[in-house]
Each structure stands twice: as C-alpha cells, then as structure tokens.
Task: structure prediction
Amino acid sequence: MRERVTVCEVGPRDGLQMAKSRMSTAVKTRWIAAMAESGVPEIEVGSFVSPRLIPQMSDTAEIVRRAVLLPRVIIVALAPNLRGAQEAYAAGAHRISVPVSVSEGHSRANLNRTPDEQVAEVARIVSWVRGQDRPMEVEGACSTSFGCSFDGRVATASVVRVAVELAAVGVDMVALADTVGYAHPSLIRSVVRAVRGEIGARLDGLHLHDTMGLGIANALAGLEEGIRNFDAALAGLGGCPFAPGASGNIVTEDLVFMLESMGFDTGIDLDRLIRARDILAEGLPAEALHGQVSVAGIPKTFRVAA
Amino acid sequence: MRERVTVCEVGPRDGLQMAKSRMSTAVKTRWIAAMAESGVPEIEVGSFVSPRLIPQMSDTAEIVRRAVLLPRVIIVALAPNLRGAQEAYAAGAHRISVPVSVSEGHSRANLNRTPDEQVAEVARIVSWVRGQDRPMEVEGACSTSFGCSFDGRVATASVVRVAVELAAVGVDMVALADTVGYAHPSLIRSVVRAVRGEIGARLDGLHLHDTMGLGIANALAGLEEGIRNFDAALAGLGGCPFAPGASGNIVTEDLVFMLESMGFDTGIDLDRLIRARDILAEGLPAEALHGQVSVAGIPKTFRVAA
Result:
C-alpha cells in the first residue's frame, strides 16, 4: 500500500488569472476535463471575483457548473468574500478556498481589508455555508505565509495567529501559501511545525510558487513535515504580479513525477497528464509553458503510475 | 558561525561541452574570473579530452593555466585517462575529476571501457600523480549513480562497489553524479547513505542535473544527508545528450539562494554571481539561460551574503 498524496491543480485559477491572453470557456472546459481524466483528484477551476478586476475569471460560474459533472474530482473555487462564496455555492462547488493575507501590505493591496477584517469575513462565510442544505467545504488559505513583497519578512507568530483564528471560526482546512515565492526549505519546515503545533492536521495544504527555483524543494520539505496536499499548476502556469517574467506555481507534472518516484500514490497517470499540456498550449498559444519532465520525457526508470 | 557548503561551478566544463556554439578563450577567461571574484570557491574549467570529440574543450590547457592564477579558487579539470591527467598536471590544475560510469552501457558509450577497466585507469592516474613533485587532488566521479539512459535502473550495490574501489585505489574524494537526471530525493538519500556506510566522508560531493525538474530538491535531500559539496552551473548551462531540449546542471544561482537562505555559508556574493550571467550571454548568445532568482530578482527578505 502506497501512501496517498493529493495534488490540487490550480492552473485554471491561479495560472489563468496571470495569463496575458484569455482562454475560451470551451477550451477551459476541455482542459479541466482532460486533467480530471488523468486522475487529478482536486481542481481549483476559477475565482469568484469581480470580472472587472480579473476578466479571465468571468466565466467561473459556468466553468464550475460544468466541472462538477466530472466524476471523481473535487471542484474548488476561490471566493474572497461572502458574495463569492454564495455564487460558488449556487454553481455547485464542492469546496471554496478563501484567501486571508497574513501580511498587512498584501492584505490591503489584494483584498482592501486588514487580516482581522478578512478573518471576520471568513467567519461570516462559514456561518452562512453551515446554514445551507448542501455541504460545501471551506478552506482558509493563508497568503504571504513565507514572506511578502510589500512587508518583507512575515513573522511565524503572525502566520500561527491567522491559522489559529481560521481554525477557531470553523474552516474545514487551512493551507499556507507562498504567494510571492520567497520560501526556502528551512522556513517551510519551521512555519509548518509551528502551525501544526497549534492546529494539528487542520493544516493540510501548501500552495507553492517556483519564483526563486525552490518550489519543488519546498514541496519536499513540506512532504517531510507531513504535508500531504499540494497545489500545483500544469506547465507551471502563472507568474507573480510582483516579479515580471518570474515563473508561476510549481509544475504539476514535475511534482507528480517526484511524488510517484518516491513511492507515493497520487492517483495520476503522468503520461495522460502531460498530454493535457496540448490543450493548454492550444488555448493560450502565447503563454510560456514551464516544466522539465514533459520536455525530457518520462525516463524508463519511472515507476508505472497506478 | 554558519556552516560552510562548497559549490563547485562546472558550467565551463559540463555546460560548455553541451553548448551548440563555442565560447572564445577570451570570454571564457573573463567568465571564469568573474565567477571567482563573486566568491565561487571551486570551478571546473574544462576537460582534457580529444579536441576532435569535444572541440569546445580544445583550449582547456590554456584556460587552466590562466585560471590557476586567480586567488582563492580551486581549479578543477576533468581528465578521463592518464594522458588527460598528465596534461592537467602540466597546466597546473589543483584537482582532476576522473569519471567512472557505474553502468556498463554508459561506460562503453562514454569511455569505451568497462567500469572495471576505468577503475584500473584511475589506479594508474593516482599512482602517477602521487609520484609528482606538486600535489594534485584526484576526485573519482561515479557517473550514472542514479540511473542510466542505456541500462535503466542502476543497483545501489553497483554504486557502492565502484565507490569502494575508487576509495581503495586512493582517490582523495568520491562524488556521485546523476548524469542523466533520473534521481529523486528518496534515491539520493538511500544511495548516499549506502556509500557513506562504506567509505564515510570520502564521499563528499553530488553532481546533479535538473533534467526532470528535481535537481534542487535532490540537492536538498543530499544536504540533509550531510553532503556539503555540490556541482552546479551558472544559468543551468548544458543539457543532456540523451534528452534533447532538457535542462542541464542545477542552477548555481538558485542553489546558492537556497543554501544562503537556509543559513549555510557559501562564501558567494549572489548579486555578483548573477551579474556573471551577462558574460555568459555575451559569449554564447544563442544559448538558453535557465534559473529563476536572476529573473525574479533577489527578494528583500534574502539574507545579506557574507
């Protein structure tokens, strides 16, 4: 029995919202379906934000409605506020991810709220969601947990405080996000340990960017600290709004290659996953695709995926 | 006191020998000097192989003669046989690295010898070197220690056997090379442990490629197993002859960023090191340069380099 590690594909949300051009709803639907068919167990398909702010996400309700019809995949949507959560619920999302910036600077720039105000918003969301007929999971995602392009270093105590508050208001799970890609393996270890020390397994996920080339090494550090849920984006789509030209989320294909090589079970057919890059390239022909395994080819020593 | 980790820059050897075009001796000299001035403590500057086979390396003797005049840097040259070792000695190299393929297939393709025949050649080299007036270190580099594009998986017992034989014939240090980039963190850990179990600290280095995107994660795994010497190439120069388009050695700048971030002392000024990419780009304008920190910029949270 191999131990399970869950990979949540966030390309359709975090990747596309940074893309220079816009992927059509039709291609997006096919792309999400192809990844689900390769065995990806969770996909964050969009964001319920103002279409004025992020036009790439204006079809999120339609995308969620289509994606939840796919079998065996958890469909996640980002919702920054109660209104977004209500729209996600109406579209049938299985889970929402609600961002809470740990740093003041990022919180004001991204959400126009203080961290405390956003925690209060999460409380309202949880309360509303629990009052509905159908269950919908709520994840609290702690942005800038490992550094902030505005505020610089972020104190571990601040991350712990936000995580504890999110647990207290009743989110189902907490994730730590390296929003701007400043993390390194020692920091991953120390912050994960500190948060786990307070909220235990409620901390279940890491959202990592490869901005400085350490994304996969940071995932390894998290894995060794017991994290079993990682966000990643096919072809490392996306980037960092604060570092033009920088690479985006960690590359799903390379992460899966590492996890399966190390003996973990992701449930993903790596060969089929890599073929889903073709749809991405078709839908966003101008976008740079990252990733190494897809270029080099799966080596003959690779274990056959489950 | 921060713990020291030594980075050996191998771009001028492993990077350039894979390059499509040829860097002039003048630019190569300036590039090596710039890296040395940034604090890189060891540089593998070339290879004493037949200029017919690898024309990019035909000026290695001249490059070594110039490089050994630089202060505070160990100048290394690759020497596949006794003749190459003698040429390296004549040019004044401080150290030679002698490759020994662990796998039969790679050994025959790369050296036209069996692994046993190449170990015997290393014995002749060590014997000859020890008879000279000036000391020159001899490193035995175990190629294909983590997999082979010809033979597939490589048994850990085979790696241990070659490493033990190299130690027995008296090399100063042994390095394990992931020549084709098939390694993953668990394999790094188990092979390093097995070899260390037999020859202890004589195993001191890892030579890693980023072919599958796991290079820096593999370095982290080696670091956690006690390895304190890593080969890397500026801008991840080079590639893999068996995987066209694949990336090359792990990126020196990103590795240094990780090590310094984690509190290790590399002795390297990261900002100056990144500026040495300009000379590389000038000397090889057609070559793709890899690496993330150089694109994203050193974040404000980075510790000031020593």
User: Anything to note?
Assistant: Chain A has one domain: 6-296. Chain A touches chain B through 43 residues (CB under 8 Å). The CA atoms of residues 235 and 290 of chain A lie 5 Å apart.
